[in-house]
Amino acid sequence: MTALPRRRRNRTWAMLVTTLVVAASIPVLGYVGAKAIFDSRGGRDAGADELPVERFPTTPVGLYLTHDDAGALSSVAVFVLSPAGIGGSIVSVPVNADVGLAASARQSLQQVYAEGGLEATQAAVESLLLVGVDVAADSDPAQAAVFLSQFEPITVTLTSEVPAASESDTPLSPGSAVLQATTAARVLTAGATDPQQATRQGNLDAVWAGVAQAVGPGRTVATPSSTVPASFDELTTRLFGAQTQSRGLTASALTGAENPTNVDAVQLDRSEAVLVFASIAPGSLSAPAQGPRIRLEAPPGYDEQIKQTIDQLLFLHANVVSGAQVASTDEVFGQITFGTPTVRIDGVDVTVQLGTDYLDGLTP
């Protein structure tokens, strides 16, 4: 296993220090409504009143890669510590996720790793997910087995067959299985050169779901801390010291005119990825677009509608840097109101609060 410290990228943004609270209860957040937020002179300069500043909690991020014995990238997982400093989240990312983001430039994470190794893949993941990575590591099958041994036995639900590791081995059939670390590592690394990596993704997600389940209330002895881990080992010790959740990311195949070179690549649901990391790692999100940095607040149960809103904001070159579930007041109907801020959230230009009337008006 090799580890790579984070090359943190400091960004300086010329910022109108304003926090706008927006209660949006209109049937649809169209272009005109969103432009009203972007172009408005409503709100107040928070700095003028020297408002108290709230900062995002520290949510350090780690990147864990595995590769097969030949060096082909076989799995990608992003580890995020919770604001408490122990426990957190695992997000499984497709190894064939496209990082070129254009039909003429399709390139998968597997191709990036083959050409540039861990460092290049870290940079590609940071660009793809708009999240900074603090520490990173990669493992071959034997190293992955050692890493996973702390969680065995690992209960998984396989979605496709896993090929045999050798002639004396037998394939693993789809369905529920209880795995030892060596076999779980085989799931993460076998089939890395298959031409259609999408068929493996369900199995990769299943391993990380099994790991999260095995962690339970905590598998390691860790002390809560707000500091950024100095190493990958320190991050994982803290991550697995308390309850951990796991999830994958939705992706769609790139075919035809969208993929003229026929690269094995899939397109991540960008709004879903932004929603996930804005919720679990707001302190680590970057803001590369020229528009304002936006915090979205919405009541629970509206993930699809929030994703639609994020799509529209990204289209307008906004940066969604934070997300939270809050109770909806629905005090305003059919208009946008500009409220006087009581605090300034460091790194946020606009807070958008979505009401249930607006959200109910969107088609999930």
SSE inventory with pairings:
Elements: E1 2-5, E2 21-24, H1 31-39, E3 53-54, E4 61-67, E5 73-81, E6 88-93, H2 109-129, E7 135-139, H3 141-148, E8 154-158, E9 175-179, H4 181-189, H5 198-215, H6 232-239, E10 244-248, E11 251-253, E12 266-268, H7 270-280, E13 293-298, H8 303-315, E14 319-325, E15 344-345, E16 350-354, H9 356-360
Parallel strand pairs: 2-16, 3-15, 4-7, 6-10, 13-14, 13-16
Antiparallel strand pairs: 1-7, 4-5, 5-6, 8-9, 11-12
Helix pairs in contact: 3-4, 7-8
> What proportion strand?
15-25%
Shape descriptor reads globular
Low-confidence stretches: 5-38, 40-44, 328-336
Q: Order the strands across the largest sheet as they lie in space.
A: 1-7-4-5-6-10
CATH topology of the largest domain: Aminopeptidase
Taken in chain order, the helices and strands follow as EEHEEEEHEHEEHHHEEEHEHEEEH
Total number of domains: 2
User: What structural class do you assign from the helix and strand content?
Assistant: alpha/beta
CATH architecture of the largest domain: 3-Layer(aba) Sandwich
Oligomer: single chain
CATH domain class name of the largest domain: Alpha Beta
CATH superfamily of the largest domain: LCP protein
Largest sheet: 6 strands, mixed
What structural keywords apply?
single chain; 364 residues; alpha/beta; Aminopeptidase; six-stranded mixed sheet; four-stranded parallel sheet; 9 helices; 21% strand; globular
